[in-house]
Amino acid sequence: MIDTFAWTVTLTRDGGTELALIAASPTAVADPIAESVPAQPITREPRDRVRAGLINSDADYPNDPYRLYRIGGSGHREQHDLAVAVTVHQLAADPPWSGLLDHIVFLARIGLDGSLRPAIPPQALETVVAAAAGAEFRYIVIAAPETTDDLRLVKGITVVTPADLREVLSCSNP
Fold first, then answer.
1. 0.70 exceeded by the pTM?
2. Number of independent structural domains in the chain
3. Which of 17, 84, 143, 165 would staple 114 via disulfide (CB 3.0–4.6 Å)?
4. 8 A C-beta contact, residue 66 and residue 173
């Protein structure tokens, strides 16, 4: 079972969307999921960017080594940063946020200072929000776009636009 994870979404070249699961586990513990499915490791650059964002947000960061990987989607992109940060933060949280994250998609780039930045072009945002709603997610957390008027028209999902990583983590802690 995957205990520490967060969902994200990727735009495809043909204008569609793909869901991806960002997951983590301590390296001291066997992880049968990471070993049995096509899991792609998250590379050093996003790890460093997310670590800086978490530390500069005064967030908990794991002391022990950990595995960090993506299941689904195609390639790691900066738009997955927020999902990576939420996943890594859970490794240090006690207890992890089990159950809560089953219904949330995270989609934002993270600045080294913990700020959130838009991850996809504004014209594609409605497509992504509608896809998340269609997959029965209840919330999507994004960096604040210039306007969210069109996004409020998408039924079945709440768009959350926190200012920074600190706000995301404080709202998500049980």
1. yes
2. 1
3. 165
4. no
Q: 33 with 2: CB under 8 angstroms?
A: yes
Report phi then psi at 12, rounded to 5: -90, 170
Local structure of residue 146 (DSSP, 8 states): S
Q: Which domain holds residue 46?
A: 4-172
How far apart, in whole angstroms, are the C-alpha atoms of residue 42 and residue 174? Answer: 27
pLDDT in tens, 51-76: 999 999 999 899 888 888 888 877 66
Contact 84, 68 (CB under 8 A): yes
CA 26 to chain CA centroid, nearest Å: 18
Place of tokens 């200072």: 113
**Residue length of the chain:** 174
The CATH number that applies at residue 89 is: 3.30.230.10
Strands (E), the chain: 4-11, 17-26, 39-41, 66-72, 104-107, 109-110, 116-117, 139-142, 158-160
Instruction: Count CB atoms within 10 A of the CB of residue 63.
Output: 8
